[in-house]
Amino acid sequence: MEAVLQNVANAAELLAVAAHSDAVKRWDASRLSRAFHWARYCQQLHSKVHNHATMRRDLEEQLLHTNGRLQTVFPGYEGVSLSDLSRCQHLLLVGLMNNPELPIDLLKLLFDPKSPALFPHNELAGLCSGIIQCKSACTVLGVFPDSLPCGADAEVLGLVLMQRLDALLTQDSDVQPAEHFLDSVLQGCEGAAGRFCLAVAAALLTSPKSQMQTASQDFLLDWLQKPHRELQHMCSTLPTSLLRDLAKAHQKFRDSYYAVLKCWASGMEYSVDEGEWVHTSQTVTFPRLVEHFLTLLELHPGLGDNVEQELNALKCSDGDFDVRGLSVWGDLLSALRRGTVG
């Protein structure tokens, strides 16, 4: 029995370290695997003792003593109850996700169901992905109310994204760790960038519950405008209805969205063969560009006068011709006045 009591104390220590200690910086895949093996052992232990009154009492006393000791070392540690042992893996995962010191390689391991060969412990691969699938199913079934329009998977990923940013930005005034995290996630999403865009949209549409979460959303909006052009990719990938929601929720996104549309227009050339404006890098078609502008103007009618003045000025800089195909700004202005895409 003494060995069991010590094991339970060790489990509480593991959860405290995972959530509150910078010791996780020195963890590797092998150490992470052992941690989750230990968490599974604790869950099995709980299933064996939860109906045994004497053992329950002894274990609860052990946890009470251990919690008190750990709370003096880790001020943010809230303690573990005996019933918590039934979900020890989940608590371990949540603690690690909220610890800004967790190495990015281990974070990728938890998310990627096809982990690189350097992580031999395949039972950990995609652990977070499995949880996301489970929560996504709950969202689809209506367990979680007020679902966002991004899709269930993206909503859960967006929530995880915001939690991680909150942890990183709370830790230090230095924003480089948060930037490195987002850059790494973007790089890891190569080939599935559309899913990443949906997750970012979900993160930005999540109602902030604290000043810290608002700051994290502002940071994410600033990061989108960096040279990797992820903002342009979002605008070309996401449906206009979702972009409208983002522009409605964040003025900074609305202003950036408008800047992207002007950038797209400036990159268009008139094709005599097609009888239409085409983008030099095939980023967007002219009808799609008009649709984007109309979406933005419908959301913020007050922008109309300013947009018309700016487009008129740009049209004049092209020679102020009213002939189709001579100025993208003139043709765009005409389409917006008609209020139609075609």
Automatic annotation (TrEMBL):
InterPro entries: FANCF (IPR035428), FANCF_C_sf (IPR038505). Signal peptide: none annotated. GO terms for biological process: interstrand cross-link repair. It comes from the Eukaryota. GO terms for cellular component: Fanconi anaemia nuclear complex. It holds the Pfam family FANCF. This is FA complementation group F. It comes from Takifugu rubripes (Japanese pufferfish). The lineage of its organism: Eukaryota, Metazoa, Chordata, Craniata, Vertebrata.
